[in-house]
Amino acid sequence: MNLRDLQLRNFRCFASYAAEFAPGFNFIVGPNGRGKTTLLEAACVLLRLQSQRSTNLAPALRLGERSFVLVGHASDHRLQFYYSALRRKVAFDGVEQRDLAEYLSLARVVSFANHDLDLVRGPAELRRRYLDFIGAQIDVRYRPALRAYERALRSRNALLKSAHPRPRELAAYTEPLVRSGNLLRELRSAIVRRLAPRAAESQRQIGGGQEMLGLEYAPGSEEDFAAQLARARAEETRLRLTTVGPHRDDLRLLVEGRPAAPFASEGQQRTTALALKLAQAQIFAENFGAPPLLLIDDIFGELDAARRNALLGCLPNEAQKLVTATSLAWREGNLEGPILRL
Amino acid sequence: MKRTEYPAALRDLIVQLRQMPGVGPRSAERIALWMVQARSDHPANIARAITETRAAVRPCRRCGFFATAELCEICADESRAADQLCIVEQPTDILPLEKTSAFRGLYHSLGGRISPLDRVAPEDLRIAALVERVEKEKPNEIIFALAADVEGEATTSYLVELLKKYPVTLTRIAHGLPAGGGLESADELTLYRALSGRTKL
Ligand SMILES: Nc1ncnc2c1ncn2[C@@H]1O[C@H](COP(=O)(O)OP(=O)(O)O)[C@@H](O)[C@H]1O
Ligand SMILES: [Mg+2]
Ligand SMILES: [Zn+2]
Questions:
Q1: What is the pLDDT of residues A221-270, one digit of tens each?
Q2: Is B148 touching A (CB cutoff 8 A)?
Q3: Signed CA dihedral, A49, A54, A58, A59: sign only
């Protein structure tokens, strides 16, 4: 998959803008606030219909406008995405799509950014979102399971918060919660099993061969989720919310056998964040026979030369890469590619 | 300067028409203009048909389907098997099931599903009427044909818990129905298969 070109209309700071991209490396250079990250975001939204930056697309509407449009060509297909608060429209080769399966089957995206460090240091919710972002792209069951789980959870919490106890409705909503929750645990656990060896290998390569990275899935629900919920009933009634389940999942990160957040050095943590993203890229490449589009936002300038070169060595050769930076002073001669100045 | 508009009566008609599902401002305006300009009796006939139909059509006392008498056509049909009861969310779910010809029993429409997020509780649905029917009509089999989404599954589970003390076999139509869309959006063949391949609960 290669993104050949991209047109933006009323997307964040761009009223109207068009760019072309080559296979391999593409450099997007300009001072802060010019729209480098925005360009990467537009590529992600066009290809995946979701932003790597926010969960909701409303903030991407250019201030004062009511709709944005993204158009581009990827692997000889024309993709169009129209967004407004009321409506979104998706077209593939000029044909409006109701079922998004074909559209979304075209490309995968992995984004690398400085805030990936939050994956290591931040709350578990960010690591769940990382797993969700992968799951939704590699297994058709993932998104429906997640949606059903979230809906059942919100329904159940609404019942627990209601003025009168509603035990029979609570029991009724426990059923879809358990079914979707069990599927979600199974799917997340499978994703972590695949990520673990790949992330460990990337950590070794970028960290210079010594650093051991371990990934462990820490599920918020047990094998017998239904029984666990039954045991938690008293606590649920007291706290008025569902206290156990996949919404309490975490992805545990261990550097040298110890939790990365409190113990690892900042350099090690940065490496771990990169390793997670590289593992994601590898899984996509294996699943789809073609590497994902890599969006690399501002990080090369921040890394020391050793880690930068190690990271470059880990990036899949055949992948198309959009790399942003405020300057290209760090770039060495072997990195060829067109430069787009903003 | 004052901008000229349609007379208030016509504007009011446009506003009224916009209350109808699927009618936006443009079509409301076009319909209203047609209604006041048409040389035929059509607009008057439509007005009469609305009043008469609203007076004539009501929910069937037994199953909730559309009826013009106490009982709907299905409930009044004595050739139908009274020992099978199919539970649906909405009265509009009944016709798609009828089209398959796979089911010859009776129906019960709940008038919705239990949904805490939409503030719909069991007491808002025709559940007491269902229990009463089960006690009186003593069906052999109750078939749940609710949507295969979270609310549909929870409502089915709620009713199963409520009805399991009666000597009746509880089954559910095979899944594979579109989630959320409900029965209306499923095609005939899918519904036929779903009805034929039901699973015991
Ligand atoms: N919805 C929006 N409407 C208009 N401008 C926006 C919107 N969202 C962000 N911006 C502006 O877009 C500019 C570009 O942001 P960004 O892409 O992050 O720049 P860069 O990555 O080059 O530093 C910023 O100045 C920001 O204030
Ligand atoms: Mg930026
Ligand atoms: Zn009836």
A1: 999 999 999 999 999 999 999 999 999 999 999 998 899 988 888 888 99
A2: no
A3: negative
Residue A36 beta carbon below 6 angstroms from any ligand 1 atom = yes
Which ipTM value was assigned to this complex? Answer: 0.82
Query: Which of A135, A146, A158 shows the shortest CA–CA distance to A246?
Result: A146
Q: The domain B8-56: what is its CATH number? A: 1.10.8.420
Helices (H), chain A: 36-48, 101-104, 117-121, 124-138, 142-161, 167-206, 225-231, 233-239, 260-263, 266-288, 305-314
Token representation of residue B197: 């391949």
Statement: residue B191 has pLDDT above 90 = no
Domain ranges within chain B, ordered by starting residue: 8-56, 60-200
Under CATH, to which class is A1-107+292-342 assigned?
Answer: alpha beta
Residue A124 CA, ligand 2 centroid: distance in Å: 24
Minimal-distance CA residue of chain B relative to A152: B150
At the top level of CATH, which class does the domain A117-291 belong to?
mainly alpha
Measure A131 CA to nearest chain B CA, in Å: 23
Q: Whose CA is nearest to atom 24 of ligand 1?
A: A33
Taking the Cβ of residue A4 and every Cβ of chain B, the question of whether any pair is shorter than 8 Å is answered with no
Helices (H) and strands (E) in chain B, counts: 8, 7
- Distance between CA atoms of residues A119 and A211, nearest Å: 18
Express each pLDDT in B124-154 by its tens digit: 999 999 999 999 999 999 999 998 899 999 9
Give the closest residue to B67 by CA, choosing from B77, B54, B52, B57.
B57
**Which tokens go with A124?**
């578990």
For residue B179, the SS3 value is coil
Q: Tell me whether the CATH fold assigned to A1-107+292-342 matches the one assigned to A117-291.
A: no
Q: Where are the domains of chain A?
A: 1-107+292-342, 117-291
Q: Counting every residue, how long is chain A?
A: 342
Per DSSP, what are the bridge partners of residue B88? B109
Q: Are B59 and B67 in contact (CB under 8 A)?
A: yes
**Among A38, A52, A300, which residue has the most ligand 1 atoms within 8 Å of its CB, making it the best to mutate?**
A38
Options 3.40.1360.10, 3.90.1640.10, 3.30.930.10, 3.20.20.70; which CATH number does B60-200 get? 3.40.1360.10
Q: Percent helix, strand, coil in chain B (nearest 5)?
A: 45, 10, 40
B114 contact residues in A (CB cutoff 8 A): 169, 172
Residue B155 near chain A (CB below 8 Å): yes
Q: What pTM, to 2 d.p., does this model score?
A: 0.85
CA–CA distances in Å: residue B128 to residues A48, B118, B134, B142: 47, 20, 10, 15
Closest by Cα among A244, A133, A270 to A191? A133
